[in-house]
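User: Hi! Is it possible to get a structure for several chains at once, not just one? Here's what I have:
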Amino acid sequence: MAAAAEHTQTPGEYIIHHLTHLGTGKPKGLVDFSVINYDSVIFSALLGALGCFLLWRAAKKATSGVPGRFQAAVEILFELVDNEAKGIIHNAESRKMVAPLALVVFVWIFLLNAMDLLPVDILPWIWALIYGAAGHDPAHAYLRVVPTADLSITMALSVGVLILCLFYSVKIKGLGGFLHELYVAPFGTVKLSANPLTWIGFILLSIANVAMQLVEFVSKTVSHGMRLFGNMYAGELIFLLIALLGGAFTLSVSGFLLALLHIGAGWAWAVFHILIITLQAFVFMMLTLVYIGQAHDAH
Amino acid sequence: MELIGLVAVATGLIIGLGALGACVGVGIMGSKYLESAARQPELMGVLQTKVFLLLGLIDASFIIGTGIALWYTTANPFLAQLANLPK
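Assistant: Yes, the chains can be modeled jointly so their relative placement is included. Here is the combined structure:
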């Protein structure tokens, strides 16, 4: 990035600059609902609209004759998601809503992740030009391009899945059934009788069951969101570090070798990252299906 | 100075131990997959999907750990805490 007026950026400052969101400020602590990261929100909305548009185009132009390449690609994608959904969710009524949900989750997260493949500096640089032209200081033009490298976005997606799981649990088992299962599964329960020992056993088991259920919900949601975030954040950070290698280019042997290393490592990591973004979108989709499928099972 | 040294060692441990666990886990899973593919080649395609799913799951904690370790290396939060300590 361009040097500030007073001194050239140190590598640490470069990375911190690239890790700062365009938003309403820094979060004070782990959870701060007053902070909105505008760059994540805007990019997510734009890419979601793009994904919907592409799928809509494919559906509108779909023919039952020999398909063109675009239609064939969308059909492969659709079949993949459909087969997985059929294998995991056995309730045809729920599948009407959950299979399209899985498709949207896969396509949207894939597009969000794919922003990581753009060169690290290009969009922030364009944004700095716009920001500077609008009269502000371009050294403070922050932009983070990958929405899924923002913990808020990934946790929002996984909390959305959690809400759906609770919704389907209540819908399939009924509110009473759901609450009953809360204190009965997974350790089972004791039939109450006149013997006070059964009352003690019942209360202890119920407490254990409720605790386990809470831990299960929290850990599933947190791991679901953190997995995607961790992969994308680490990927972005490694791209930034590789960019620093290129920034160390000078007209000397070591400078030259570093620049070559930048090109080589950048290529290799980008190719590996293509696998990672697809894999993480797929894993997120599969776990969405599995968690919603689990909400259908009666313990 | 001590703080920076300790953070460097901590970063190395996070990445190293995470990689150790993840690689051993993936290795075990891969060997089971190859074994079962040799026994029942017709199941290779079905199992391959599951293999990739498990790969994504196993990599999760390791990559989260690597992200946190790289964060410590570059924008170290402990240095900020140290700077804010009351004298």
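The first helix of chain B runs from residue 2 to 39. The CA atoms of residues 1 and 25 of chain B lie 36 Å apart.

User: Great, thank you!
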